[in-house]
Design a protein that fits this description.
This protein is of the alpha/beta class and about 675 residues long. The chain folds into 3 domains: about 300 residues, 3-Layer(aba) Sandwich (Rossmann fold); about 180 residues, Thiamin diphosphate (ThDP)-binding fold, Pyr/PP domains (Rossmann fold, 3-Layer(aba) Sandwich), CATH 3.40.50; about 130 residues, Rossmann fold (3-Layer(aba) Sandwich), CATH 3.40.50.920. Helix 18 links the parallel strand 11 and strand 12.
Amino acid sequence: MPNDLDQLCVNTIRTLSIDGVQKANSGHPGLPMGMADVAYVLWTGFLKHNPANPDWANRDRFVLSGGHGSMLLYSLLHLTGYDLPLEELKRFRQWGSRTPGHPEYGLTPGVETTTGPLGQGFANGVGLAIAERCLASIFNRPEYPLMDHYVYTVVGDGDLMEGLTHEAASLAGHLELGKVICLYDDNRISVGGSTDLAFTESRGARFTAYNWHVQHVDGHDRQAVEAAIRAAQAETTRPSIICCQTHIGYGSPNMQDTAKVHGSPLGEEEVRLTKQNLGWPPDAQFRIPEEALSHFRQAVSRGQAWESEWQDLFARYEAKYSDLADLWQQVWSGDLPAGWDEALPTFGADDGAMATRVASGKVLNAIAPALPTLIGGSADLTPSNNTELKEYDWLQPGGFHGRNIHFGVREHAMGAILNGMALHGGVIPYGGTFLVFSDYMRPAIRLAALMGLPVIYVFTHDSIGLGEDGPTHQPVEHLAALRTIPNLVVIRPADAAETAEAWRVALEHQDGPVALALTRQKLPALERPAGATAAELKRGAYVLADAKGTPDVILLASGSEVQLAVEARNRLAQQGVQARVVSMPSWELFEKQPPAYQDQVLPPEVNARVAVEAAVPQGWERYVGRDGLVIGLDRFGASAPYEVLMEEFGFTAENVTSQTLKLLSKT
């Protein structure tokens, strides 16, 4: 093999990756070994980044969608000077290390997104590029390209098999996202063996049909890879995919081009043979030749120069466009502008009955002018989700000055794209669909919660109350399913006033996603006791209507069922039963309250409790206790007008009253 500096550097990447996996006796060495040439060309010849400041706003973004090949990324981060010591590479996949089995955002400097579930990183890259184009349209001025960077993603066969990437690639091609450059590790091997077993279509032809710029190269021919990346950069109206034909486990005498090298350590003897085959000292572990390290570490001075040049540009920009410069600083701080909430509408009895999805749309349009980087849309359900910002344009090819996104019927992609937008920074992303279709988004929602991303989901048609569309569209188990995801806040407001406050909470919540569950049917404006407002929603639960003295029973409800609890309270009072009504829009927010407040809302001495929610009862037992009752649904819905469904399934004030009296008769 040629004994030149480039080859030395490439083999340094390979052997570091091999050693990390072997020391852990766990991991995936095949991808790093096969893609080392491609990654080396990209990171030393093209990637614009600053290892000393991984958060520089105008850096190129690098996404390793096949996160199982994480040792490739960790090796590159260490070699190019990020705060990732060699000791961390030696602690690969160990407790407390910054080198977990799959890259984790927020844990390791330089990791742009948490990857592992295949296809998610690819779609994150599309979201990163959408955010880049939106911010460029807001801030860039002639001769002042404040926002101007590429998004590079490394994907494998597994990524491209996942349906998610089909959705994301289709939208990226439609939007002509020319800043997306995808490097496809075309090694023709997956976990189960040759891709010929199940994956035989022309991947290049597929991407050509998606309106992508497609190139095919030998992934071990570094000059060809370099030329392909330059050609991809020159293509400004189409995203690019470079199909890099590689050998998985490159250099291993006995495991190259086999499925075994995908997800298993080479073994000590094969490690020795591989190193010997690569011209490497066979017994050297975690060896980094000084000349290779010196070459890689040029990234530090290059990065500082790039950022310094950009800072000079910003200083000139600030002198000429001071208002825009102030806005830039504000949106990148992650803080909301002072006084933004003054734009929040207030709702009361005079507004009449209103579906919470309609109230949500009114809130969005009222606050949009105060939040210029609030950007989002719907999975082709905009009129139903009420997610359109009516005074603003739609994002379309060649025009990113709008703030509305047509995601198309692509919930899988929408969820992951929203994550990419949030990861990019500078924008506030939201996306809508029916609550029942949150199932399509669940992997992306889970990753948003894992990464602590401020993404807002607008889930409408939140119960059997949507009516005639029937059980295929009526969410029954979905509230419970979403509530099981750690670090996801679910809010189901009971009227328009609570909906406005739900948006306040969602926008101010910065360390995780928020899901709003909104009704199709109209709900009355609730009366609140003197001094109480819907702002109490921020506590997750609050006393909406109280008993005279110690209550005999507590009625808890969320969303559209709160009105039933209020009416049942009045009926119970006529029979001498004192009931407290607790509106409980968010379990997660309530659990964050001090125990004293929780006991104030739900006095421990009152054991008679009834929860009412048009969904599976699962979870409510924590609030009603062993002696309590949950009026919920233990079956799927049906097709009929919603008034009929509510009556047939027992969601009426009469039934709540009757069931409460039965409960009290037993205590």
